[in-house]
Amino acid sequence: MDLQWRLLPLLMLLASIFILFFIQDSSKPSRKDCSLLPYNHFWIKSKRIVTPQGIISGAVEVNGGNIVSIVKEEDWKAKSKELVDYGEAVVMPGLIDVHAHLDDPGRAEWEGFPSGTKAAAAGGITTLIDMPLNSFPSTVSTETLKLKIEAAEKKIYVDVGFWGGLVPENAFNATALEALLLAGVLGLKSFMCPSGINDFPMTNTSHIKEGLAVLAKYRRPLLVHAEIQEKSELLSEGENGGDDPRSYATYLKTRPPSWEEAAIRELLTVTEDTRLGGPAEGAHLHVVHLSDASSSLQLIKEAKSRGDSLTVETCPHYLAFSAEEIQDGDTRFKCAPPIRDTSNKEKLWEALMEGHIDLLSSDHSPTVPDLKLLSDGNFLRAWGGISSLQFVLPVTWSYGQKYGVTLEQLTQLWSERPAKLAGQDSKGAIAIGNHADMVVWEPEAEFDLNANYPVFIKNPSISAYLGKRLSGKVLATFVRGNLVFKEGNHAPTPCGAPILAT
Ligand SMILES: [Zn+2]
User: E strands, 253-412, where?
Assistant: First the structure.
C-alpha cells in the first residue's frame, strides 16, 4: 500500500483532534474578552502594596491568574514590558463582601447578577457571597441552588459564592441540609424574625441548633439575622394623634436595641455547643449586621471569651450615618436593624478598631424605587434595605478617617476575615499562591457622588450615599489576574466564576 494511504487515517485523526480543540477553545472567552489587559503573565508595581507583612513598595507578579511572586523595590530587577506601574496608588487585596442580595433569579429588576457584579467590580469588590433570599425562589434546596447558579453563570464580572437558607422546612431534615451543603453552598443563613420574604420564614433556636449540628460536620458557618420581635411601643393612630410614619424616630421605636439583645441572648444558649469538645465543635456562628453597640455587643464579647466559635459583622451604613441626621420621609435610610444614634455609631467604631467586631459587609439590599416609597416617605411601609455595593470602600475609608482607620485594618475587615468566614483559602491577601484578586485605588482622591458619577447598581436613586462627598477612588480591579474594571470601563465579557464549596 502506498505510504500516502497509510497516513491518511492518521492525518484525519489529527485534523479532528485539532478541530475539536479549536471548537472547545472558541467556546471559552479569550483573555482579551475577560480582561482589559492583554497579558497572562505581568507585573503590578506600586509604592503602597498592602501585604500581610505590611505595606511595601515593590511589585506583584501575576501569572495564570495567581500571584506568583512579590518583590520589594530594592530587589526589583525585572525589566518586563508587561508591567503596570500604579505609582503612589494603593494596591490591596480585592474586597470580599460576604453579605449581598443580588435578587437574581426572580427579582432581577431589583438588582441582578450583571449590574450587581459590575457595581462590585467598580467598587473594588472581587468576590461576593450572595444571600439566599430576596431572589425568587429563595435558595433553600439543591433545586433552587441550581437555579441560582444558572442565573449567575456567564453573567458575573467578579467571583460569586452562595449562602443557602436554613428555614423551618429544611432545619429538621439533615439529609436535605447535607444535600444543599454538598451541592456547594458555603454555609447557611437564617432569620430570628420575619425576613420580609414569604418563602423565607423565620427560625427559632431549635432550628438553629439542628442546623449547627449538620454544619459542624462540614465546618461551614451559620449566619444569623439576630433580632427577635417584641411588643412595639408604637402609638397607633388616635392615641395622642399617633406616631408619624414619616418620622425616622417612629421607625426607631419599632425596632429597639432590645430586639437584637434578646436574639443574641438566645443564640448564645446554642453557640456554647461550638466550643472545643462541645456537641457542635467545628460549627461556627456569625451574627450579621450588628447595629446595637451596647448590650448586644457586650454579650458577644463575653461569649467569645468563653470560647464560643462566634464572629460578628457590621455594615458601612451603621458607621457612616446616625439617626439624628435622617430627615423625615427619607426612606433611603430604612434598614433592619435600624441605624441608631450618634453615640451608638461612635461605640461601633470603637469596637471595630479594637477588634471586637470582626469584619464588614455591605448588606447591599436594593429594591425598585416604587417599593422605597420615596414620595410617600412612610418609614413603616417602605422596603427596608440600604443600597451600597459600589461605595463601601470609599465610605468606610472616608468615615473612618476620624477614628484613624488604616489600610491594614481595611484589608483585615474587608478581605482577610471575610475570606476566612467564607472558607476561601486562596483569597483575601496579597500572598504567593493566592488568586490575583486586587483593587488599585487612590485613598486621597475625593469625589462627589452625584449624577455625573458612573454608578452601576441598577437603581441608583434609592442609595443613601448619593449626594455625599467621599474620598477613595477605585482605579482598577483585578479578578484572578483579569483586569475587570478600569477607570469607568468593564471588561467586554463577564468572566467571574461561581464559587462552590467542595
Ligand atoms: Zn441582608
Answer: 284-287, 310-314, 359-360
Asked if 454 and 392 count as a contact pair (C-beta separation under 8 A), the reply is no
| Dihedral sign for Cα atoms in the order 55, 59, 63, 65 | positive
Distance 100 CA to ligand 1 centre (A): 7
Residue 334 has pLDDT above 50, yes or no: yes
**What residues have their beta carbon closer than 5 A to ion ligand 1?**
363
| Cα-to-centroid distance, 359 and ligand 1 (Å) | 15
What spacing in Å lies between the alpha carbon of 281 and ligand 1's midpoint?
26
CATH of region 94-425, choose from 3.20.20.140, 3.40.50.1980, 3.30.70.360, 3.40.50.300: 3.20.20.140
pLDDT, tens digit, 9 for 90 and up, residues 239-295: 555 789 999 999 999 999 999 999 999 999 999 999 999 999 999 999 999 999 999
Write down the mean pLDDT value for the chain.
93
Pairing of strands 125-130, 159-162: parallel
In whole angstroms, give the CA distance from residue 245 to residue 329: 8
Instruction: Enter the pTM of the model.
Output: 0.93
SS (H, E, C) 216-280: HHHCCEEEEECCCCCCCCCCCCCCCCCCCCCCHHHHHHHCCHHHHHHHHHHHHHHHHHHCCCCCC
| Structure-block grid coordinates of residue 438 | 486586587
For residue 386, the CA-to-ligand 1 centroid distance in Å is 9
* Residue 111 to residues 97, 134, 303, 391, 499, Cα–Cα distance (Å): 16, 10, 37, 15, 20
- Can you tell me whether residue 442 is helix, strand or coil? strand
Closest Cα partner for 253 from 230, 222, 269, 271?
230
Q: Map out the domains of the chain as residue ranges.
A: 94-425
Residues counted in the chain: 502
Cα distance between residue 214 and residue 218, in whole Å: 7
CB 355: neighbour CB atoms within 10 A? 11
